[in-house]
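Figure 2 data, in text form.
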Amino acid sequence: MATITDDFVAFPYDGPRELQGPIQQALTRVVDPELSLSIVDVGLIYSVRVVDGVAHVELTMTSPACPLSEVVLDDARAELHKVLPAGHGLDIRLVWEPPWAPTRMSAKARYFMGW
């Protein structure tokens, strides 16, 4: 059986330490419907910054032509609203720079994809 090792950093995070785990867990529950993998493992989350009561999330898709981007965005919003404190705002931005690349994937995702 293959051993999966991973030096994968899920995404850059800047904000209160007590929110980092819940935010990462929330985003890990969001699944890319085309790949059946977490958007964190696929490497779609570029950054999360929580400042002045607002969580700012930058994420991308594997392709600008992704037909399910709104589904992913809606799922991310729903999961994050479950873990953010009452009164916290949420700003999710879909970005295309830098372009997504398979090197952003976790070892788990690469193994699943047979890479």
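Caption note: The CA atoms of residues 2 and 63 lie 30 Å apart.
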